[in-house]
Design brief:
42% of the residues lie in helices and 26% in strands. A hairpin with a 6-residue loop joins strand 2 (53-60) and strand 3. Strands 1-2-3-4-5-7-6 form a 7-stranded mixed β-sheet. The longest helix is centred in the middle third of the chain and has 18 residues, at 102-119. With 198 residues, it is α+β, with helices and mostly antiparallel strands. The chain has 7 helices and 7 strands; from the N terminus they run E-H-H-E-E-H-H-H-E-H-E-H-E-E. The model is unreliable at 108-117 (pLDDT under 50). The protein has helices at 15-25, 37-45, 79-89, 91-100, 102-119, 142-156, 171-179, and strands at 4-9, 53-60, 67-76, 128-135, 161-167, 183-188, 191-197.
Length: 198
């Protein structure tokens, strides 16, 4: 008998696992990977209810016993508002991470200023966003399963469009998104904004 994979909404008890997967999955160039585990837990807590959804992909052993979280996805409406709330309420943690990583923080700040000078502010994004997909073991199909679940969730929520931002050097993710009919809409700094109809 083979292991089974299922999806379920994340809960408060899952936040430590989500933070650990995030830190392992995102490169050190991604600023959030430089936040402390406790700060990441606070960050993902904002996406557990009231708009956004955090889904977990679980793999259960054939005997129904052992359970492993293979990855997670965060999607929904109000993503930008939740991120803005996090930045306001955790400015001290963000500044400490910046001070501990001055080269990365300075580079990010300079890139943001240059991008705004050249391109202006980011254009309007879809009301329904995919904030992140992160997997514990790449190459297992978990990311694709989570992406398909996000698209199903967007459809069931009645979203007309779904958008996402992806780093320009994340070719595996870009290929996965284009294979599911996301199209490049805009280059903003070191990220592409991609979108598709639901």
């Amino acid at each position: 008998m083979a292991a089974t994979r299922t999806l379920r909404p994340a809960s408060e008890a899952d936040l430590g696992t989500i933070a650990a997967i995030h830190r392992a999955a995102y490169s050190r160039r991604h600023f959030t990977s430089r936040l402390t585990p406790a700060t990441l837990i606070d960050y993902y807590r904002l996406f557990l209810s009231g708009g956004p959804t955090t889904l977990l992909l679980i793999e259960r052993a054939p005997d129904g016993g052992h359970e492993e979280v293979l990855g997670f996805a965060v999607c929904g409406s109000e993503i930008a508002a939740r991120i803005a709330l996090f930045k306001r309420t955790h400015i001290g943690s963000i500044l400490r991470a910046s001070a501990a990583n001055p080269v990365a923080a300075g580079s990010k700040g300079i890139k943001r200023l240059v991008t705004r000078a050249l391109h202006g502010p980011a254009g309007p994004a879809a009301d329904y966003l995919l904030l992140s997909i992160a997997v514990a073991r790449p190459g297992t199909g978990a990311g694709g399963m989570l992406l398909d679940a996000v698209l199903d969730h967007a459809a069931s929520d009645g979203a007309g469009r779904i958008g996402l931002y992806v780093n320009v050097d994340n070719l595996a993710a870009i290929n996965a998104y284009t294979s599911r009919r996301f199209t490049l809409r805009e280059l903003y700094g070191q990220q592409y904004y991609m979108e598709r109809a639901v």
